[in-house]
Amino acid sequence: MHIKTFGVEMWMNEFENHCRYNLAETCVDSITLGELIDMAGVDNSVLGELRGMRMGYGAIEGSDRLRHAVAGLYENQSRENVLTTHGTIGANALVHQTLVSRGDHVIAIVPTYQQHYSIPESIGAEVELLHLRPENGFLPDLDELRAMMRPDTRMIATNNPNNPTGALMDRAMLAELAEIARGSGAWVLCDEVYRGTDQVGNGYTASICDLYERGISTAGMSKAYSLAGLRVGWVAGPKTLLEDIMIHRDYNTISVGRIDEYFAALALENRAQILDRAHRITRENLAILSDWVEAEPLISWVKPQAGTTALLKYDLPLPSRDFCTQLLEEEGVLFTPGSAMDMESWLRIGFANSTADLRDGLARVSAFLARHGAAQSS
Q1: 10 Å Cβ neighbour count for 161?
Q2: Which range among 8-17, 222-231, 325-334 shows the weakest confidence by mean pLDDT?
Q3: Which of 45, 305, 369, 378: CA 20 to 30 A from 162?
């Protein structure tokens, strides 16, 4: 099977361990297991539970405890509507491999995580791209989507909140998207790994699996819950679909690690404390970033409504990869170039790491912009 190089992951693999300020990171600043245990108030019981845990495969579809906790994140899902995976990346791959065949018509709303167009393309699907535009607030033009739909459209692939723009489809827009898909009987795969990070309220927007009978929600522990190291994700959707996914999952997963699932369940059972922390970080940091953008004449953007990332438009005569490599060399700050996401002349910044690192990193970016802007005008 031929598949395109994963642009963002290749960039991160090459550079993320060689920077002082990682403003390419997309997870809310990670927590330690000790911090998780303290938040859950179970310091005296964890070791005893782990000591008695037999290191067999465990429940193949995922532990009942974890699937029950995941189901609690949705309005209309039960434990039987949840299947655990190795991260959201594993969930997305399994859905595409289960539903998409050679020759199928797939619409991917881009920019998005590259899985959602490169995997179906590698299978041999006919992939059409619906491009998000800044003048629309990086929200999809649903009239354009209607025009792209065909009677045989197999899937619409999207993510919400959007990576990398931070745009957010609300319940009404998701319901309208579902109605468009319903006309062709198409599946809607919505990668919701950033769900829980909205800038207002409790952080949660509506989920596609609660709004559409062919809606599939994927998510995991890495972003809002600050626990990427657990490598736990899930698919939430119709039970008959999960049965089909299990056929593929048997070939590459068997089961998710029992210790990982234990801590993921503990986190979701105590998610209020984790999300309070995540909201403090993301909301304070986005305000800092917003003030910085307003003060930088060479930078413009569409302000995110959710998520942990934003796209920045820059006004310098540099390809985005050159901008990012020079910024790293000169100031020790890591961004992600738009070229890694087929969005040349843009940069992706992650703003959910420590507030001190964000402030210091942005100050260094300002020095870089001042220096290169002056060189441009001289």
Answers
A1: 28
A2: 8-17
A3: 369
